[in-house]
Amino acid sequence: MTNHWIDIRNSDVILIMGSNPASNHPIAFKWITAAMEKGAKVICVDPRFTQSAAKAHIYAPLRSGTDIAFLGGMIRYIIENKLYFEEYVRNYTNATFLVNPEFKLPGDNNGVFSGLTDGKYDKATWSYQTEGDGRIKKDPTMQDPNCVFQLMKKHYSRYTPEVVNKITGTPVDKLIEIYKIYGSTGTPDRAGNELYAMGWTQHTVGTQNIRTMCIIQLLLGNMGIPGGGVAAMRGESNVQGSTDHGLLFHIWPGYLNTPKASLATLAAYNEKETPTTKEPNSLNWQKNKPKYVASFLRAMYGTNASLDEAYNLLPKIDDGANYSWLNLFDVMYKGKFTGFFAWGMNPACSGAHSNKVRQALTRLDWMVNVNLYDNETGSFWRGPGMDPKKIRTEVFMLPCAASIEKEGSIINSGRWNQWRYKAIDPPGVALPDGDICSEIYFKVKELYEKEGGPNMEAITKLSWNYGTKTFDGHYHFDPHSVAKEINGFFLEDKTVENPTKKGEFKEFKKGDPVPTFAWLQDDGSTSSGCWVYCGSYTDKNMSARRDGKKDPTGIGLYPEWAWAWPVNRRIIYNGASVDPSGKPWSAKKAVIKWVGDKWVGDVPDGVGDPGSGRPPFIMKPDGVASLFGPGLADGPFPEHYEPLECPVEKNFLSPQKSNPTIKRFDKPGVGSDVDVYSGIDSCDPKYPFICATYRISEHWQTGLQTRWCPWLSEMQPEMWCEMSKELAKERGISNGDKVIVSSPRGEVECVAIVTPRFKPFNINGNILHEVGIPWHFGWITTKDRQYNPGDKKAEVFTWGDAANLLVPTIGDANTTIPESKAFMVNVVKK
Amino acid sequence: MVDVNRRGFLKISGAVLAASGLGISLKPVSAYAQPLKIQYAKETTTICPYCSVGCSIIVSTRKGKVVNTEGDPDSPINRGSLCTKGGSIYQMANNENRLGKPLYRAPYATEWKEVDWEWALERIAKNVKTSRDKSFRAANDKGELVNRTEGIASVGSAAIDNEECFVYQKFLRGLGLVYIEHQARI
Where is each Molybdopterin oxidoreductase domain found (chain A) (predicted)? Predict the structure, then answer.
């Protein structure tokens, strides 16, 4: 989230689209309600009339997978009706930039942007025109036909309400009503916020769904102000933190790209990865990247290795290769891994195409599964259709401490890092994850020290000063020492010039915490595990602060409750809340103010002194936000493409039906025999219904923790399929009947829930049905499975298996997040 | 940890309750006279382990057992409220189905066997070393230095603390893994 939970109360219009906070982030609704009490309008757009829709002022249905069409229509409406915040757009976005005249839009190029060959874009034409000195050519009047604003206007001129209606199924009057209300936040004293979750990410155009909304927020001047922003509501309590800390193939902690094989040295990495700019007023904050990289390398190896050595010791990925989730399980399915850690995860239920995932697990030599409860992954070898006597995988199921049985921090969607305390000991001999990880590390290290092995220093030289071995030989992991390492400290005595005040110097002693990331160094004299957390643990543990009353700005920032990255800033991009002269665009929506000789309010973001001319989006090399975003794989402007599996014969906007840059797993040489799809080129009558997975309040994720909790299982014990009355009638299904939901990947038994919450869509004259299934179920907590002596048995049994058994192996073109929100199924009465 | 604000809150609400009870009904007064179920309990705070709103929860323990969990009124985020899941963490602490011992399933075995930590950790370490050494590549097909372990993969975890995430990625990257993924990708 660019803003934070409490800030939702400052919104004038709230768009709930791609999410259902009333069910899935229930306490968030406290702040939505607070906004409503002050007169805010709430809009909910969803294929299903959700619990959030029930609380909204306006609800509009849309067919799954058509969000870009819906929002593209909104961009058109905002531009046509001049609802955009012109000064904001002119000064703080790249609307004025002149694009290469060779660049072609999909409307003029058969539905794709210029440069497409074999499913990949050559981005040569997605570039800017430049002056002799390298600066980007601009047209402040935004009239030049090649300027970003005019290109955007032209691109979305195709998204008329009639075309949008044909694609989405949303009635035209609803479209106009919503466009008008949301567009009303383009004035300086009004703010609109958008709340999304997996309803937007789990599509082959997931990243572009979000990009479309970012464009709208920038056009309306909604970024950086209270009640504005784009709210990514994350699905797990610490998925923000696990992402910040680089538990993904493509990033090191702090969003530093994992080095590629072609970058042979640290110098080559820094040269390639550090952005430069020719824009004279742009701060280009990322020019500091080498400091963060050096500090991370120090946090890995301390002074046991030089920076260059540390860089070389760490693994490199091949250029252009993708090691993400769907590929990972594909490689596993092909038997290419011998070992696997499933740590605090249940991929046998959470992975798309779970049958493929479950089969993949049979091809391992060993697996380590760390968890609170027995689960479908650890016990895969005795799951449905498995014959343990034929499965060689050696499995270790390690019991770990729950959140209240250990100490440490987690960070919420609003980037507020909060400290948790230990209340009790874990059950039996279960251990905190940090202890388990340390124990395995020391055992592996010992083996390498004894027996040697390739690149062994990469292991033996890691710094691991996080605790001590106790008398019983057990390693106790101290989260405070790690939190200090994540924050960062000086490795030597050093005098450093104040990064914000030239000529002023500060002395640091070896071991002193680094106050903020601005003080980090590129010469190896500082260590910092994750630069965005620098400032979180300085002279005290900032994340443990608990003053929940102090609110000096009156807009709910509560700066002394916990700590937010970066630098305790609560509203990111707040430099854009003031005009170029430094005055808040609106007194009602002020986040920062220049008083005397400094900014007061939130921690200022990006602004220089008033009138300095510095554009505020300092994380972008050119200093402005991107309406035109050439960084993405599938286009600089979002364009509507149909989901890979879809119920329509063609894309009503262009001849290009689905995203041309996605990786299909059914192509020769890619994927495997089980990667099958339905209805790609034309509709497949065997699987006529659209299906989306969703969540409910009573369960969490695969249900691994909540299905073992009797209170929750009692409330929601069964896997179901929700469908319209019309579909039920067509298929002879009554409420409560058992049904089989199937896709080309598998089938799931469900209880039919027949509700008016789903309505058939009228798509260009055709009636299309959509159904929804929750993804919280799995076989381990069911009654009818085989139990061995000593097996844990749920107090309240659940019924049904994983929704992901049906989901295709297909991901977003940029992130590869699977398309769980729009795939095709059949539903029959059992 | 001391939780002065909350105690203050309880005192005030107790007084209000008592005052409003006078002359209207004796019920609230008698209810207040009941010993609180958190009497003599130690309080610690935690953050809900489920969704990402970050609601604060007060955990009351007595003699090493959780006796109560409830929303923390001091948190500006949830102001004491909790949803169904947040309200259920009492059962996460008091749950006989939690795993308390390492379990091991040998190749082709049909059931779990309880093992001790030392044995499990040693065997895991050996497996890690065998897999790593067998699949380690110093250079790729182009001859570029890659120093990576291709035969081991990891998924996890958004369910562990930041400090554990950092240390876990350190462990994995130290081993040379490149197949490092988790919940954020799905």
Answer: 2-373
